[in-house]
Amino acid sequence: MAAEEAEKTASGKKKPWTKEQLRNGRDEMNLVEFPFATLSDRADGVQVLEFQVSDADRDSGLPVERKLTVTGDPKYGLPTAKDEEVYLGLLQLTKFHTDFRSPDVHFTRHELMRLLGWPNNDWAYERIATALARLTGVRLFYQNAWRDNANKVFKDRGGFGILDSYTIRDGRKGSGPVEDLHSEFRWNNVLFESFQAGYLKRLDYETVRELGTKAKRLYRYLDKHFNPPKYARLVFDLRTLACERLGFSRDYDAVQIRRALQPAVEELEALGFVAVEPVETRYKRISRGRWEVSFESGSGKKPPKVVLPSQAQRVAVPKGASAKARETDEADAAETARVRRYLDGLSPTERTRLEQDAISGADPFLRNLLDGGPLAKTTAGLIVHKHVVKLLEKQAGAPTA
Known about the structure:
With 401 residues, the chain is of the alpha+beta class. It has three domains: 3-205, no CATH class; 222-296, no CATH class; 310-396, no CATH class. Helices cover 43% and strands 19% of the residues. It has helices at 19-23, 30-33, 81-97, 109-116, 122-137, 178-181, 189-196, 205-208, 213-225, 238-245, 254-271, 279-282, 323-344, 348-360, 364-369, 376-396; strands at residues 25-28, 48-56, 63-71, 104-107, 139-148, 153-160, 163-167, 183-187, 200-203, 233-237, 283-287, 290-296. It is globular and about 65 Å long.
């Protein structure tokens, strides 16, 4: 009897994750305040992450420094964005299987892949193993920054990982009792104490898993701090939010931060999670080199869909137009249709990643137009359209411009 049998209904079909389960996810709030992973899927030679903010003590009102230092596994290195995805998936598995009553969780990798929305292939199986190794090997050192929810104080906690241990068993092979074929992991005791002290918040995991990496982190951070009506509008120092809370490079200046952050903001605007706001009012200059960024809690309703170039209706060519003009228009229409079919065939996660790749590789002039203004969304559509055209030409073996 294979391990995956535990996932099947009486009819023998795999149980899908229901929308109710996905929307009723959980997030541990200490790991929302500071990131423990890089923003990319590579550490790029970085061995240590450090994040620090100046805060006010709740009781005395005096300023206090809060700091997190993250060190990676000697062999596997620091956790990356993909490992953070796996961490969030493990939280949801724990909610579904034990409701945080036990630090030990049994699961199958195929079950986790379906939860993450990853493809069922060898890459995913290997990538999950790497993530578990990194989440076990990472070490977190909090200085006056770990919230002890049981005693309602911030304290120092250091030298602990996210997982204490894990065992991978291949449920695709062999037979025997299900429990003997399940993989398993055990949460670190410090983190599990936080779970049991109730320092968890509800998380709409269905939404989170479809977001890009930056948008994921921004969503989770804002979701923790929004509390309408009292905290329906949040204002942050731009550099502190981007570099210390989200993990952006400290080498970025204010313009680069806004340019890197804005696509994530627009993802959240498109969900209705934050209210749509012009760039000119969202980002406010306070003094030379210092900016603030503000977010207002959205209605939860998606705004009207923006018509992008690849989706726009074509204007009919007049009857008197030349044959060359008609041929050009027909070629453009065919190209638009090919791009649309290609995009329609992608999952939301794949499309988000494609859009990120397209924007990062676009001409500097076009990227500048993304920095707010009325042409931002139209320019994004044009960039994605051109990127897909190049991909299709490459697949066909045709030369690209």
